[in-house]
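Researcher: Go.
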Amino acid sequence: MFDVHASPAPASLRRARPPFLVSVLRGIGGRCPNCGESALFRAYLKQVDACPVCGEKWGNIRADDAPPWLTILVVGHIIIPAAMAVESRDLLPFWASMTLWPVLALALSLLILPRAKGAFIATIWQTRAHGSEQP
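Model: Structure:
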C-alpha cells in the first residue's frame, strides 16, 4: 500500500502553484505555502527541510534579514504612536511606562517575527527568486 507520508510526492503528482496571496497567507499562518496542509516550521523560526505532504523543499530558502526588518517596521509603527499618545497625556507613572512599552514591544516582536519569516519564505518561493543557500 502506498503511504503518502513516507516520502515526498514525485514531481508528476505535485499540485500547481497556488495564487501568490494564498501562498503568502499560508506562510503567515505557518503552513506550507504550496499545499497548506503541514507546518512550515519545526521550531520557533527553524523551517522544515521539506513538506511531508507535497514534498516541496523549504530548507534551502533563506529569508535572511527581511523578517527582522519587517518586524521592526511593524512594531515601531504600533508602539511609537501608542507611546506618544499615552505619554503626551501623562496617564501612566514613570515606572509603568518604563515597564509597559518594552514588554509590549518584545511581545509584539515575538508574535510577528515567525509570521514575517513565513511570508518572506512564501514570497521567495512563489516568485522563484534566488533565496537559496546553494549557488
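Model: The chain has three helices and no strands.
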